Structures
1.
Amino acid sequence: MTHLKHEKTLVLIKPDGVQRSLIGEIINRYERAGLKLVGLKILVPTSDMVDRHYSLDPSWKQSVGEKAIASYEKRGMEPPSRDPIKLGDRVLDGLKKYLVCGPVIAMVWQGAHAVEVVRKITGGTEPRTSDVGTIRGDFVLDSYQMADTDGRAVRNLIHASGSVQEATQEIPLWFNENEILSYRLVQEQILYDVNIDGILE
Ligand code: GDP
Ligand code: MG
């Protein structure tokens, strides 16, 4: 079995994060947790890329649609449709407009529990309810209510893989194998090595 320290996850800084000059701040949040940046690029995604990205998990549309219906009900509102797939399609249409509107930063971060740690630092999907101290909670005020009223996707700065399986599928979509580097950071000795002698002179 591969050591956990090799776990990788995909992070996209969405166009709102780039436009708000939060690239450095966002990178800092992951970097200071001890994660290692092993892939990095700037690009303007195509609508086809966004479609492929969110179609990797065939159950995504259904689950995001169910979540959207629940959020309408929580607000005491009737959803525009009771069919989760239809609502999932609406979210995807919104994402296809949102993510192609300008440059995004695509990154691969590596480290023990990288997927889980990155999601924890990033915060929950809806910035209105994301925890304080998370990136989405600290820097955004968008909500399902705002996004639904204006018929657009929730603007929440970041995409981060939701599971190890999702990461395994998403990384090759955005990066060629030779664009992901294998190297050692000095701090890995203190993070991962079994023996940490040799520090004192
Ligand atoms: P994530 O993994 O936290 O990014 O969330 P999801 O995979 O469930 O959804 C993907 C993206 O779609 C989110 O980051 C939001 O930008 C957007 N989104 C998700 N749910 C909704 C929703 O109910 N309404 C709207 N308008 N956008 C949504
Ligand atoms: Mg997701």
2.
Amino acid sequence: MNVLIVASEMEPFAKTGGLADVIGVLPKRLSNLGLDVRVVIPLYREAERNLKRLGFKVQTIRNKEIIVPIDWIAHKGKIKETKIDGVTVYFLINEEFYDRDYIYGTPTGDYSDNDIRFGFLSLGALEIAKAVNFQPDIIHCNDWQTALVPISLKWKKHYHDDPYFANTKVVYTIHNIAYQGLYEQNLIEKFGLPSHLYNMHGLEFYGEVNLMKGGIISSDLVTTVSSRYAEEIKTPEYGYWLDGVLRSISNQNKLVGIMNGLDYDVWDPEKDNTICMKYSPENLDGKIMNKMKLRKHLGFKSKENKPLIGIVSRLADQKGIDLVVDFLDQILDLDVELVILGTGDKNYENILTDDMNQYGNRFSAIIGYNDKKARAIYAGCDMFLMPSRFEPCGLGQLMALKYGTIPIVRGTGGLLDSIVDYKRNAELGNGFVFHEFDGKEMIRAIENAISVYNNHSEWIQLVKKAMTENFSWKKASEIYHTHYKRLQGLS
Ligand code: ADP
Ligand code: GLC
């Protein structure tokens, strides 16, 4: 079976969050199941740099320029190809669109031509499939940036009538319903789509065009990244005004939740070359060393063994950073140390930097994006805080578990599907969960964690349990495979 995966991020080439982690591993796991899997992503400046840095062998596909007409302009793209663990990755080259400092936008806002940049990616992926003669049985798209794949296959005459794609089915994965790709009505015309699509049963959405909505209604199957989130997005509270559309496709049995896994080839304290000392559930000495090193690096001077809480996160409202900011005094009153690594919303960046100056030797805010520091936090902290307002899946808590850093999470989406509250269920518990999005509840959950931390042997048992939890991709990749086969009428 031929599977073409189209995405706007992929580890280890270009990453802003968990989408990159997923696209970095799912294709490999599908390929292990015997599928021919290829990925298309843009050749961002960051991707070009990482290809060089990591020493990938890259081949330029000669004489295969693709052309995508958008708004009466013929945009041209070239293709580079590399292989990673048996998976072919095609990089779509267009310097004007992708040779920029950032993936989606500068710190002051999104690039204003993202509709064209990602429309070019979507249609470019279809053109690449043809240019390299890879006829896909399944095209697996991800988030609004790739929605113009299913939309065009269904509605754009040029592709709809193309026998090359006659048997192609589209799976569309929602990683985050909050980002929808909203554009003006003229997007329909720019991409040569029929004008009747600007209709409430089509792409129209409160006076704009909504690409996420288009992706949802035009695909053969819609998936999202945890079972809980698949239920949540059908409610007004979590659906971001698309709950009605999602209820409707769910009634047609076209919506499923498949919990992401974690790539244990790259996230494992026994194999991680970036941390100061490797460790395992059988020998936790390395974890103690990692904590010492991290505290030294942060300038935390206390001689007592206080619980060290870590956060690694985009600084966005989604992540509940406001709870941390508003309750910082109360958190630090619990006699803990706290480190935050994150980047995003300027407002949070500024507040956290100011707070750091105030609480210097017990609180550290590292503003920026840095994989090595993230790993130092997963390895060196005792607890990992994720007070998310909503969380489609969340990979941070899975990384924390593997590194024996006990998650304290708000019970929502994938956090609720992966973390069981130890206070309520000591046998299955692997973390601490609070339910209301409320600072006092968060503080109570941290207190619960501290009370177990203070009983050393009980805490070590919990750490070992966390480290042996299994969120590998094996199960999830098999579920995707089953759906691909069903869509192809093979089972
Ligand atoms: P989301 O995709 O919503 O940001 P996830 O928990 O699914 O949340 O994934 C976040 C990913 O991004 C994880 O791999 C996490 O380690 C990484 N990450 C987030 N912020 C940073 C940062 N500032 N520096 C390094 N890695 C980060
Ligand atoms: C999104 C979600 C996150 C999820 C990731 C990968 O970024 O916010 O919860 O883990 O996608 O699916």
